Amino acid sequence: MRFVNAGGRAGLLVDDMVYDVNELSGDAIPYWPMEALVAHWEAIVNLHEVGAFTGGTPLDQVHLGPPVPRPSSVFAIGVNYRGHAAETGADIRPIPAVFTKFPSSINGPYDDVVLPRGEGTTDWEAELAFVMGDTGRNIGAKQALGALRGFMCAQDISERFVQMAASRQFSLGKSYDTFCPLGPALVTLDELPDPLSLRISCRVNGEVMQDSSTSDMVVDVPHLVELLSSVMTLRPGDVCLTGTPAGVGVARRPPVFLKPGDVVETEIEGVGVLRNRCVAED
Ligand code: ZN
Fold first, then answer.
1. Which of 14, 44, 129, 228 is the most buried (most CB within 10 A)?
2. Could you tell me the distance, in angstroms and rounded to a whole number, from the CA of residue 167 to the centre of ligand 1?
3. CA of residue 49 to ligand 1 center, whole Å
4. pTM
């Protein structure tokens, strides 16, 4: 199933039509918190299986917001693709770097990314994001996929000067407003036969900058769930961006950074495409 945030309301996406989850269920389901969606999950699944949909709206007539607009946590993983480790000269460590993108940075799948004033070193990072479905602590890797609600495309927009030079901690340079486009839909696992081997790519103005597979990850999704949940209780709706493959702008010679007017497309096989235009800060 594919869930979208249709103008702030939970929508089920079927064949380019969006069906309002509230109307489908005959019940008032606030889109958030995620717990409400989880509580009605069985009813939604049943409706989906029956295929009894009426009163949908064509997808191109709705404004899609981020499928998970207000998670309690947004984790991100540093240097988690072998190709990206090689291009940056970073060590692959036994425990990967975990940082946060503050939830205020979340952005819609087709909304503008605002480039901050300053150094002009804003960069792209195409990433697969997973979304928790269950509350859990100490979730073993074998049980991990079953604890997820699904996957989204994510773009880990990064201001490199602030990330690297102004701070020893990544989170600040990763958390400007609009720096975390998510979506276009939350795609459940039944639509992704092998989430550990999906093509992932990033295009800037149509030019392919990143083109890899999630199979290049150093720590795969089940082991990331195991790692995070060994430290903290994960909650429904928590989001984790799982690292980016080779091809970021800062690792190019000479480096390439985003400019106002650039269009960043983030595509993951079976999950979808984000399309975000860069604009200058007012
Ligand atoms: Zn990243």
1. 129
2. 16
3. 36
4. 0.92
Nearest Cα to 221, choosing from 245, 248, 242?
Answer: 242
- CATH number of the domain to which 124 belongs: 3.90.850.10
Structural contact between residues 153 and 271, judged by C-beta atoms closer than 8 angstroms:
yes
Distance 17 CA to ligand 1 centre (A): 32
| Cα(257) to centroid(ligand 1), Å | 15
Q: What is the DSSP string of 167-208?
A: -SSGGGGG-STT-EEEEEEEE-GGG-S-TTS-EEEEEETTEE
Instruction: Output the CA 218–ligand 1 centroid distance in Å.
Output: 13
The last residue of a domain, from among 20, 39, 65: 65
Per-residue pLDDT of the chain (282 residues; tens, 9 = 90+): 898 988 888 888 888 999 887 665 555 555 444 555 666 677 777 777 776 667 789 999 999 999 988 888 999 999 999 999 999 999 888 899 999 999 999 999 999 999 999 889 999 999 999 999 889 999 999 999 999 999 999 999 999 998 887 667 889 999 999 999 999 999 999 999 899 999 999 999 999 999 999 999 999 999 999 999 999 999 989 999 999 999 999 999 999 999 999 999 999 999 999 999 999 998
Distance 125 CA to ligand 1 centre (A): 6
Q: How far is the CA of 244 from the centre of ligand 1 (A)?
A: 5
Domain end call among 44, 65, 86: 65
213 and 86 belong to one structural domain: yes
Query: What residues does the ion ligand 1 have nearby, CB within 5 Å?
Result: 125, 156, 244
Q: Identify residue 107 by its one-letter amino acid code.
A: N
